[in-house]
Amino acid sequence: MKKISLIIVGFGVIGAGFARILHEKKDYLRDLGLEYKVVAVCEKEGSIISDEGIDLGDVLRLADGKKLAQHSGWTKKKSMQVLDEVKADIVLELTPGDVKRGEPGYGHIKKALSGGMHVVTSNKSPIALHYGELKRLAEENNLKLRYEAAVGGAIPLLNLRDKCLKINEIKSVYGILNGTTNYVLSKMVEEGISLENALDEARELGIAESDPSYDIDGLDTALKVVILANNLLGRDVSFEDIRVQGIRDITSEAVQLAIKHGYVIKLIGDVGRGEVSPRLIPVEHPLNVSGSLNAVLLDSDVAGELTLIGYGAGARQTASSIFSDLTEVTQFV
Amino acid sequence: MKKISLIIVGFGVIGAGFARILHEKKDYLRDLGLEYKVVAVCEKEGSIISDEGIDLGDVLRLADGKKLAQHSGWTKKKSMQVLDEVKADIVLELTPGDVKRGEPGYGHIKKALSGGMHVVTSNKSPIALHYGELKRLAEENNLKLRYEAAVGGAIPLLNLRDKCLKINEIKSVYGILNGTTNYVLSKMVEEGISLENALDEARELGIAESDPSYDIDGLDTALKVVILANNLLGRDVSFEDIRVQGIRDITSEAVQLAIKHGYVIKLIGDVGRGEVSPRLIPVEHPLNVSGSLNAVLLDSDVAGELTLIGYGAGARQTASSIFSDLTEVTQFV
Prior knowledge:
Two copies of one chain form a homodimer. Chain A has about 325 residues and is α/β, with parallel strands linked by helices. Chain A folds into two domains: about 1-155 and about 315-330, Rossmann fold; about 165-310, Dihydrodipicolinate Reductase, domain 2 (2-Layer Sandwich). Helix content of chain A is about 40%, strand content about 25%. Chain A contains 14 helices and 13 strands. In chain A, the strands form two sheets. In chain A, strands 4-3-2-1-5-6-7 form a seven-stranded mixed sheet, sandwiched between helices. A six-stranded mixed sheet of chain A has the order 9-11-10-8-12-13. The longest helix of chain A is centred in the C-terminal third of the chain and has 16 residues, at about 315-330. Chain A is globular, with a radius of gyration of 20 Å. Chain A starts with a strand and ends with a helix. The interface of A and B includes residues 166, 289 and 309 of A.
C-alpha cells in the first residue's frame, strides 16, 4: 500500500467536491494500492490541520453547514502559513482564480513547489497567466505540476495527449470550452428567447454567476485557450495574445436566422489561431452540443480528427480530472 | 536513450502502416528518449531477420512492390518459428484475425508471451475469443498484453480509462464501432439509395470487403463489444453471449421513414447489454456521426457521460493507438 499525504487548499465547490469523491472512493483507491491521507484543509478564514489525517466525512458535514471552524483541528492559520509549516507529498490547489493576477492560486503553487511538494490544480488563471514561470519552478525542483481540471472539466485533454496520443503532434484544437455560454446559446435556439432571458434561467440554475461577464465576454474561454496553446501545441502564448470576442451582442434574431440556414452560433475557442469568437457551426457538426456541455476537436498528424464531448464543469465531474492528475503524480512520490 | 527491440508480425495494411509511422517518427521518438529497433518482420510467406535492426525505409519500399523476398535478410522461416528463435522486448501482433478461432494471432500471442516478450496487438479476434487465457498467460509471465488498436481504431478507449478516468467506474459503453456499416447507413440517408448500392460504393472506395458479411452482419462490432465488456466493465463475457443483429435487412424506406421523424438508423454495439443491433438515434445526438467515423459514449460514475468520435479504421489512424500501447509497454521493458 502506497501512502500519500495531501494538503487541500480551497474548500469551495471544487475542493469539497474533490474531498467527497476521495471519501466515497477510499476502498476503491485501496484496491488500487493507494492510501491518501489529508493532513491539512485550508479555506479563506483558516485551516484544519492533523498529522494523523483528517476524517473527510466530518469535514464535509461541517462544511455543508459552513461550520468548519467547529472542527477540533481548526486553526486561524491561513493557507500560505500552512503551506510553510505543514509538509505533504502533494498539494491540491482548488481555489477559484482571479483573472488579473491569478491569485491566490499563483502564490499557493509557488509556495508548494518551493517547499518541495507536487501540485495538482483545477485553477486556470495561475496556469494561464504564469505558465512559463510555474513550469520552470516545477522542473527546477524536479516536481510535477498538473492542471487537467483547469480545462474542459471532466474531458481529458492534457492527459489524453500525454498518455493516449503520444506519437501525435497536435495540429489544431478548437471547441466549446465554457458551459455557461453554451447553455445560454442553446436556450436561445431552443426557446427563441433573448440572451438576457437565457442568462436569467442560467442564474436560477446556478450555471451562471450573478455577474456573468467573465463567461459571456469570453475571458474564461480565453484563459483555457492560453493553457491549451502552451501545453498541447507547445506554443509560448500569453493571455494578451488572444483576440477575444464574447457573445454579449448575439441577438435572438441572429440565432434564429442561423438556424434557418442550418447553423447554430457557438462561442468557439480556437487554440491554433489564438482566438475566441462566436462562430456559425453546422447543425449536424459534432461541436453542436447543447446545454452546458463542452466539446473539443483535436486534429493530429497520426490519429486524425478526434472529438471529445463531456461535462465542462460540475464539482463531481471536475473531480474526475483532478484524480486523473493525482494518481499520475502519485507515481512520482 | 532507451533501446527497445521489436518483432513485427503481419505486414499488411496495419503492419506496414505502423512501420511507416515508426520510420517517419524516428527523430520524434528519439526526442522522447526512445529508440526502437526492429529485429524481425514476419509475413505470410517468410520473414526478414536482422539482429542489428532492419531499415524500415527499405522494407516499406519493397513491401509496396510486394517484393519483400528480395530483402537481404529474407528467410522462408514463418512467424511461429521466428517467435521461437528471435528474441525481442516487444512483439507487435498486427495480422488480421479469423473470427472463429482467432488465428493466427492467438498462436502468435501465446508464443510471444510464453517466450518472455510483451505483446501489443491490433487484432481483435484473439482478444475477444481467448481473453481469459491470454490475460492469465500475460500475468503469469509478468508481461504486458495491450490491444487499444483492436477497438475503435484511433479512438482511445482502453488507455483512456486506465490513464485519464482512473477514479471512475464505467457504468455503460455503447456506440458505433464499425466504420463500414456506418458508411453504408450514412450513404443510405444522404443519397436515398439502397443498402446494396451503398455497399457497392463502399467497396469501390476500399471501405468494404468484397464479402462484407463480417461487418454488415454485426460480427465485427460483436467482437469489439466482447473486448470492451471484459476490459472496461470488468465482465466475463464470451462471443456467444452477445445477441447480434446486423443491418442486412434495413431498407431504404426504413431509413427515410426514420429521417422523417428526426432519427437516423445506426448499428449500435451496446456493451452493457451485450447486444449489437440497429437502433434509432435522434439526428442531433452526438452518436449521429457520418461516413466511416466511429463514436462511443462512455458513462461513468464520476466524470458522467463522455462521447468520443474519431476514425475507427485506417492504417495511419490505427497506428496512433498501437503507439499509445507501445510507449506504455516500453516503460516495463
